[in-house]
Design goal:
Largest sheet: 5 strands, parallel
CATH architecture: 3-Layer(aba) Sandwich
Shape: globular
Structural class: alpha/beta
CATH class: Alpha Beta
Strand order of the largest sheet: 2-3-1-4-5
CATH topology: Rossmann fold
Number of domains: 1
Oligomer: single chain
Number of strands: 5
Radius of gyration: 17 Å
Length: about 210
């Protein structure tokens, strides 16, 4: 029976890169966030208030479908971003910033509660913890056109919500990676250290079972 490993973290924290590196190392199947095919992302960054609900519903549906697929698979799957981040970080942040109406937010959260009651949490959550300057540096480096308009206060508020969420997250084992001091993209030793930590967590999972 395969396991479900999830990588969580703010925009620009390196989720996709780490997901790719770990999938290659462990020969896991990787499930990525639908960014290039997302029909709402460009519109959202141009007019957040108008498109926030549409975008969040799209992500919620996409992530729910992914989890159903992951749990059916006999393979171990590593997932880039979780369903919980949408519900506890992105949607409430949009609501708090006045970019999603209370009516839309309540509808969204009711749907999330229903979906999350039907799926299992990941076996291991890897959280990429990064400072705002590090996030900005990595976002600029990858140069996605639609991300050029991301506001600094938006990133900062997301980071605060991520920290609050991870401090109370208790649905599975958690491994926290300090991105500011772990250049896993360019430094093989840093990646090897993360892999050692993952091995320790996974062996703990096997012992439990």
């Amino acid at each position: 029976m395969g396991m479900h490993i999830a990588v969580a973290g703010n925009i620009g924290s390196g989720k996709t890169t780490l997901t790719t590196l770990l999938a290659k190392h462990y020969k896991w199947e990787a499930h990525y966030e639908e960014v290039d095919d997302n029909p709402y992302l460009n519109d959202f960054y141009e007019d957040m208030h108008r498109w926030s609900f549409n975008l969040q519903i799209y992500f919620l549906n996409s992530r729910f479908s992914q989890i159903l697929e992951i749990r059916k698979s006999p393979k171990t799957v590593i997932q880039d971003r979780t369903i919980y981040e949408d519900a506890y970080i992105f949607a409430p942040n949009l609501h708090a910033m006045g970019l999603m109406s209370s009516r839309d937010f309540e509808t969204y959260f009711t749907l999330f509660n229903l979906m999350s009651s039907l799926v299992q949490p990941p076996d291991l959550l890897i959280y990429l913890q990064a400072s705002v300057p590090k996030l900005v540096e990595q976002i600029q480096k990858r140069g996605r056109e639609y991300e050029a308009n991301i506001r600094l206060d938006y990133l900062k508020k997301l980071n605060e919500r991520y920290e609050a969420w991870i401090s109370s997250y208790n649905l599975s084992r958690v491994l926290i990676v300090d991105v500011d001091n772990n250049d896993f993209t360019n430094n093989p030793q840093h990646l090897a250290h993360i892999i050692d930590q993952i091995n320790a967590e996974l062996h703990g999972l096997f012992i439990q079972k």
